[in-house]
Amino acid sequence: AVHRAVYDLKLADSRGKVESVRGRILYDFSGNACEGYALSFRQVTQLGTEAGPRVVDARTTSFEAGDGASYRFKTESSSGSAKPETVDGTAEKAGGGYEVKLRQPKAETHREASDALFPNAQMKAVIQAARAGRNTLNVRLYDGANNGKEVYDTLSIIGKRIEGEPSEKPLQRPEFEKIARWPVSISYYKTGSGESTPSYTISFELYENGVTGAVHLDYGSFSLRGTLTRLDLLPQERCAK
User: Fold this and answer.
1) How high is the pLDDT of residue 241?
2) Choosing a second label site near 140 at 20 to 30 A (CA), which of 48, 84, 110, 195?
3) Kind plus residue range of the DSSP H or E element containing 29
4) pTM confidence score
5) How far is the C-alpha of 24 from the C-alpha of 101, rounded, in Å?
6) Hey, which residues does 157 pair with through a beta bridge?
């Protein structure tokens, strides 16, 4: 579903030096299976720590081909007074794997012999697995995160279909009364790291149309709860004949 969503973030749990959190996620998704899918994502988080407040600002814009064969991305992130970091590049499926061409932080090309899904194809795969009644899904993911070279092994745990009214008001609308939804938790492990603890885990209620609610972000030392506060369903862009 083509949509815009806003999630308010609050601290759910802290196992380290983070004492308080407030923030917001802005999510804007558009496109179709023929032309491809565009995403604009921004997460701003103000952390209250023992050393004082710190603001983390991450912005991502991306475009993924409808068939999942190519991916363009640009991520800009800053933390506190540190110099902002930018990762800008493209990825194309090739020869059973994929090739990444980076423009920033420096111009370079690298190839992966093993295949991986790009983000939208990953979400489609999770929805298909949920429809089929599967409770786990393992896929490799490339999303251009961090330095643009990292690949993640992901483990999705899919629960039984949820019945009843959603807890978040933007989802309490006729359009969502008959749409299937499942509790999903996705853990991300850096490929080749050998670590048994995920780098981070995202949990949410996943609707069959790709909308998510009741978001929970676990970064290890602390976790955040994301409450959907606004949802705009936009006209679906049809494929050109």
Assistant:
1) 57
2) 84
3) strand 18-32
4) 0.92
5) 31
6) 136, 185
What is the DSSP annotation of 65-103? -TTSSEEEEEEEEEETTSPPEEEEEEEEEETTEEEEEEE
Burial of 185-214, coded b for 16+ CB within 10 Å and e otherwise, reads: ebbbbebeeeeeebbebbbbbbbbbbbbbb
Instruction: Give the span between the Cα atoms of 88 and 103, in whole angstroms.
Output: 5
Question: Which CA distances in Å does 172 have to 12, 165, 191, 210?
Answer: 24, 7, 39, 16
- DSSP conformation letters of 160-188: PPP-S--SSGGG-SGGGSS--EEEEEEEE
Confidence of residue 195 (pLDDT cuts 50, 70, 90): confident
Burial (Cβ within 10 Å: 0-12, 13-18, ≥19) of residue 48: middle
Structure tokens at 147: 């330095």
Two structure tokens written together for 112: 């992966």
Amino acid at 187: S
Q: With CA atoms as reference, report the closest residue to 9 among 208, 187, 219, 150.
A: 219
Please, what is the Cα angle at 161 between 158 and 167, to 5 degrees?
100
Q: Check if the beta carbon of residue 148 is closer than 8 Å to that of residue 194.
A: no
DSSP 237: P
Residues facing residue 136 across a β-bridge: 157
What is the phi/psi pair of residue 19, to 5°?
-105, -30
Look up residue 239 and give its DSSP letter.
Answer: P
